[in-house]
Write a structure and sequence with these properties.
CATH class of the largest domain: Mainly Beta
Shape: elongated
Strand content: 15-25%
Order of helices and strands: HEHHEEEEEHEHHHEEHHEEH
Number of domains: 2
Distance between the termini: 43 Å
CATH architecture of the largest domain: Sandwich
Mean pLDDT: 84
Number of helices: 10
CATH superfamily of the largest domain: Jelly Rolls
Number of strands: 11
Low-confidence stretches: 1-28
Structural class: alpha+beta
Radius of gyration: 19 Å
């Protein structure tokens, strides 16, 4: 259960009382070119795209802000247009487990909206986000009106399911070193950003351990060994990858 203060904060945002909501004037859609390229709008006609976006609110969220909590009713559907969000579930002992990192183009709340009406996971901003937010009932109406939206959401969710299947298979069959390397390579494609040393992923060792089904100690040991080989540079809440080819070779080790 979440603290009442946090629930009240989320409730106010859902009702539109969030000072971070960006007002749209004259029907403009901020960052329309970027939004139009997201997977949700693939194949949607320009006129339809404009109408769908005008039914949403444009909102910004800061790092660590909560988007929704596991078990709460789905009151809105969120499309990330920039930044990233951490999607988690709670284990039996109350420990937080990272399911995935949502990135621009991902839709939050779709699974619950079209199934049980409740959020299946908790979503928290990982890197400051810009979003489009639709009222849940209004979005259901849009999906009925524009079947392409439903097809695109299904494709996005299918991609997430395939990734989870791959990670489950890796945890059952792949040794921990190659498994961690595989996950870092995935993250390079989604949240990697260029730095002087190569490419950096802003993810803590604890987060990486959660995503690969291992321990903080093991991840720290692996990163230290790879640092000695010049493959990575571990940081407090990030890892810089200096030699992608060597990391890929590690991921392919038997």
């Amino acid at each position: 259960m979440m603290p009442n203060q946090e629930r009240d904060q989320l409730s106010n945002r859902s009702n539109g009382n969030d000072p971070n909501v960006a007002d749209r004037k004259n029907g403009d859609i901020p960052g329309a070119t970027v939004v139009e390229r997201t997977r949700l709008f693939g194949g949607i006609l320009p006129a339809d795209f404009t109408g769908i976006c005008r039914a949403a609110r444009v909102k910004g969220y800061g790092r660590r802000e909560m988007l929704h909590f596991e078990g709460d009713p789905v009151e809105q559907l969120i499309l990330l247009t920039s930044g990233s969000a951490k999607i988690t579930k709670l284990g039996r002992g109350g420990e937080e487990i990272i399911i995935r990192l949502a990135v621009p183009g991902d839709v939050l709340g779709a699974v619950g909206l079209f199934s049980c009406g409740l959020h299946c996971t908790t979503a928290q901003v990982f890197r400051a986000c810009r979003t489009l937010v639709w009222n849940a009932r209004a979005f259901k109406g849009l999906v009925e009106r524009f079947p392409g939206l439903h097809q695109n959401m299904a494709a996005i969710l299918d991609e997430h399911l395939r990734e989870l299947e791959d990670r489950f298979l890796e945890m059952a069959t792949v040794r921990v070193g190659p498994r961690v390397a595989l996950q870092i390579l995935r993250l390079l494609k989604t949240i990697g950003r260029p730095v002087n040393e190569g490419v950096e992923i802003a993810l803590s060792r604890e987060d990486l351990a959660q995503m690969t089904g291992t321990t903080l100690f093991t991840v720290s040991r692996l990163l230290s060994a790879w640092e000695a080989r010049g493959v990575v540079i571990p940081r407090r809440e990030a890892v810089a990858i200096c030699d992608v080819q060597s990391l890929r070779a590690i991921s392919e080790e038997e």
